[in-house]
Amino acid sequence: MDRRLRPLLLLLATLWGGGARAAEWEGSLKGTGRLLVDSNAPRDFSDGVTRGPATDLALSVLGTAEGRGTGERAQVVGRYELGARKYVDYANEDTLVQAGALEGSLALGSEWGVGVEGHVKDRRGGSRAYSDLGTTVFAEYAPDVRLALRVRLGARRFVYRPDHTADFGGPEVGVLGRYRLDRRHSLSVFGEWGSRGYGTQARPFPGVTRSPGRRQDGGLVAGAGYTYRGPVKLSLTYAFQEVSSNSFGETALRHRLTGSAGVLLPWKVTLLAQGSLGLSRYPDGIFLSPEIILVEEDEGQNSLSLKLARPVSARVDLELSWGVWSTHLPRNSLSYTRQVFGVGFTWRDQE
Fold it and tell me: What is the model's pLDDT at position 296?
């Protein structure tokens, strides 16, 4: 563990654990640097007739710090990420992203626990600058190592800097359940609902003369997942999302299937693969909100990414990566495709 993390973890564990001597701590630092070839640096759509997207080179760096402090009955977990990307020609796509999360939990006996969690993500630069903040209180039930249930209640605030009409905030409730069938197989289910209040007026539906008032959305997410941990690590997750709005053109339904796999190949090479398929439907026939992407590199409904990693020392890995993201808009015959090739190193310092 890096010594720079110890004072913070020791303080947090002392506050939650009741004493420095009873506290145990652990943490890690990791840094990644990559040279990228981006086939669609400006993230443009194409109609198949005009000149296609432009390719550019970019340098990407990402640093991550994680820490955990554990007392007799309490635990504090923290994580912070800082990433940046610099393009050669498309400087307007340069980005700086920060994300952090801090969670504290307290055991109430052998089966129940309560806690509080806060998270923030801030993206600057490029065409999608935003800040996403949230806080949650939760209760957990874990009668044994096979079953774990968490119910949470929180609030969220989202600020979309290019267009503040897309800013929203409101309460959220959620539930997460995990069940281990055995040491290799596990299942999970999750659900979440949030009320999103906007500062703008809702658009009236055709034929309705009465003003609908302020825009108000309801966001529902539900899904299930399966995980296998053996010689090959596999995971498969299905999620359904419904955004129901009182503003015409803002309602959307989405289905998303995501899978990932990891396997150790000869010569100490690790192969990691991840793919997703998405299907969206807009009952009003149009979708008026600006395109807001909350996850880095998740521009399209469909994606596939591969990474090969091989250790070159005890703490440094050499990595080769490739990813493709795509989607198609049938109403106007526009398509979006982007490929990113990368080569770089990952360094880690972990006790």
Answer: 46
Hey, what are 32's tokens? 């990644």
Distance CA 290, CA 279 (A): 18
Taking Cα atoms as reference points, which of 158, 151, 121 lies closest to residue 136?
A: 151
Tokens of 315: 């703490």
Q: How far apart are CA 332 and CA 316, in angstroms?
A: 47
Can you tell me the distance from the alpha carbon of 288 to that of 301, in angstroms, rounded to the nearest whole number? 18
Listed residue (344, 347, 351) closest to 64, CA to CA: 347
Q: Distance between CA atoms of 73 and 216, rounded to whole angstroms? A: 41
- Give me 91's structure tokens: 């400087």
Closest CA to 41 of 160, 127, 130: 127
pLDDT band at 18 (very low <50, low <70, confident <90, very high): very low
CB 171 within 8 A of CB 194: yes
Give 276's DSSP letter. E
Distance in angstroms (rounded) separating the CA atoms of residues 9 and 3: 10
Pick 193 or 297 by higher pLDDT: 193
> Residues 81-100: what's their mean pLDDT?
94
Domains of the chain from N-terminus onward: 3-350 (2.40.160)
Residue 166 has pLDDT above 70, yes or no: yes
Euclidean distance between CA atoms 275 and 301, whole angstroms = 10
Lowest mean pLDDT among 77-81, 84-88, 245-249: 245-249
CA atoms of 80 and 99, how far apart (whole Å): 6
Q: Is residue 75 a contact partner of residue 16, using CB atoms and an 8 Å limit?
A: yes
